[in-house]
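Q: what sequence does this backbone want?
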């Protein structure tokens, strides 16, 4: 929103400068020409002024009406063509937004009024004494109309720039929301504000969908960030909204089941749910076509969820978790590993934030992660399972620092992620999961948490020693934190810090010593 306001202010400033420049250039040309005439013909300023009074001004009135009508016609034609072309490319209801823009209304009102003035003035002029003021005003209006053309066309082109249009739509939704929060609304204005806000989300999401279809990455990302910023702005204003704000018709949610819609309305989360549903709709459209949009969707959803968590909006946080799970399901169903990989990263970051505010939700997130990790393994997507393993490991390491968190439950969930090997892909998944569990075991060993270290060892006790050696050597072989290729996360999953590396070897010693293994 700030970027849109800055862009609008810069556009107005540039337009004003251009208007003054054109007007000044015209005036300067007139003055220079007049000086040349005075010098060459030995005329004086008094002579020129007397000539204007004696009929020059009045005779010029005949053509001004035609000139201004032509300017108005050109402006309408150019604007109509440009708006139509923009509307065909992006379904943002451009005409509706364009026709209520104050600058557009002001410019066309000024042009139309100027035409009316120059048409009416000759009907009320007399031969003697010759009128001076009204013809001068008419000429001034004509000059201003011509001077306005370039800056106004610049405004139209800037206004129809998709990113500016998105910011304009969001700005009007914010204005409507602030009006409701101020308490100066009745039932009719409340409904109008609800319609405007809901429609704004629809239009921004529709633009994002069109941008994905046309591979317009910048507009798609800008649209998502705009929805994110608006939802965060809404969460900040939510406490000031009246109870009537939560009463919305089911049509706001499209084809959503009545029971689910009623639950959303009862929880006072209809706007957040509306925003998340638009996110989910864009996710389904973007999977496999524009991975940057998928990544931004996860990031935007996480930012809204974190803001809700810090604002103690538990219902909104619950919605955030459910939509993250939905993203993962869509990614798995489409077998798009990269989409799932990026979504898991943002989901993990949400869990780490939630650990400090709502451990119960973090616990459920881990349960969901393990579930989708096992599902991915069954679908033959081992990399997803390995990614889940390392994300859960990070959450467990962070969780042990907070006594409020049931770390034992998280660990128990983590140890259910490994599954029996029934094929090559599951072998890859098993080794990856075991590496993550081993690194966590080494971490617990370093921290002196021997009971959990032994719990992990006991879970791995039945593994073949050769597989355990492969796991250990694979971890210790990674000496660089950064992955040798460019990836979204950019880091090696199996990397451990230098101070932790000795504990990796110590973790495996009892497992590789048969006598010690029997004593577990």
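A:
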């Amino acid at each position: 929103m700030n970027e849109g306001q800055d862009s609008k202010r810069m556009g107005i400033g540039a337009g004003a400068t251009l208007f003054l420049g054109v007007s000044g250039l015209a005036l300067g040309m007139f003055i220079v020409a007049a000086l040349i005439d005075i010098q060459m013909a030995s005329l004086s300023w008094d002579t020129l002024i007397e000539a204007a009074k004696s009929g020059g001004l009045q005779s010029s009135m005949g053509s001004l009406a035609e000139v201004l009508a032509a300017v108005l016609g050109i402006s309408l034609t150019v604007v109509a063509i440009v708006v139509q072309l923009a509307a065909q490319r992006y379904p943002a209801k451009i005409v509706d937004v364009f026709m209520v823009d104050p600058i557009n209304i002001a410019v066309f009102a000024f042009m139309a009024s100027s035409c009316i003035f120059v048409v009416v003035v000759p009907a009320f002029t007399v031969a003697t004494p010759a009128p001076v003021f009204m013809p001068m005003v008419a000429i001034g209006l004509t000059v201003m109309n011509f001077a306005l053309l370039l800056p106004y066309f610049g405004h139209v082109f800037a206004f129809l720039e998709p990113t500016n249009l998105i910011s304009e739509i969001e700005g009007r939704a914010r204005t409507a929301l602030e009006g409701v929060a101020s308490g100066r609304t009745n039932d009719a204005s409340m409904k109008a504000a609800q319609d405007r806000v809901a429609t704004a989300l629809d239009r921004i999401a529709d633009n994002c969908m069109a941008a994905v279809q046309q591979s317009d990455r910048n507009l798609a990302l800008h649209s998502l960030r705009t929805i994110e910023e608006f939802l965060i702005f809404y969460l900040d204003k939510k406490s000031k909204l009246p109870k009537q704000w939560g009463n919305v018709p089911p049509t706001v949610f499209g084809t959503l089941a009545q029971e689910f819609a009623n639950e959303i309305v009862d929880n006072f989360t209809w706007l957040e749910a509306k925003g998340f549903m638009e996110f989910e709709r864009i996710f389904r459209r973007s999977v496999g076509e524009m991975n940057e949009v998928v990544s931004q969707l996860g990031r935007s959803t996480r930012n809204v969820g974190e803001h809700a968590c810090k604002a103690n909006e538990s219902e909104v946080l619950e919605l955030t978790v459910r939509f993250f799970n939905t993203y993962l399901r869509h990614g798995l169903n489409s077998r798009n590993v990269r989409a799932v990989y990026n979504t898991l990263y943002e989901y993990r970051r949400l869990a780490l934030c939630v650990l400090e505010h709502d451990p119960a939700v973090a616990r459920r997130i881990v349960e969901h992660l393990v579930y989708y990790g096992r599902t991915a393994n069954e679908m033959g997507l081992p990399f997803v399972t390995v990614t889940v393993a390392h994300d859960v490991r990070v959450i467990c390491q962070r969780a042990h620092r907070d006594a409020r968190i049931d770390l034992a439950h998280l660990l128990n969930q983590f140890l259910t992620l490994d599954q029996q090997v029934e094929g090559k892909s599951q072998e890859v998944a098993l080794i990856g999961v075991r590496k993550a569990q081993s690194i966590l075991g080494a971490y617990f060993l370093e921290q002196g948490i021997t009971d959990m270290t032994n719990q992990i060892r006991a879970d791995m006790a039945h593994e073949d020693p050769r597989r355990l050696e492969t796991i250990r050597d694979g971890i210790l072989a990674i000496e660089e934190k950064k992955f040798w290729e460019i990836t979204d996360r950019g880091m090696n999953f199996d990397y451990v810090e230098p101070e932790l590396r000795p504990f990796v070897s110590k973790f495996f010693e009892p497992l590789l010593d048969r006598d010690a293994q029997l004593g577990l």
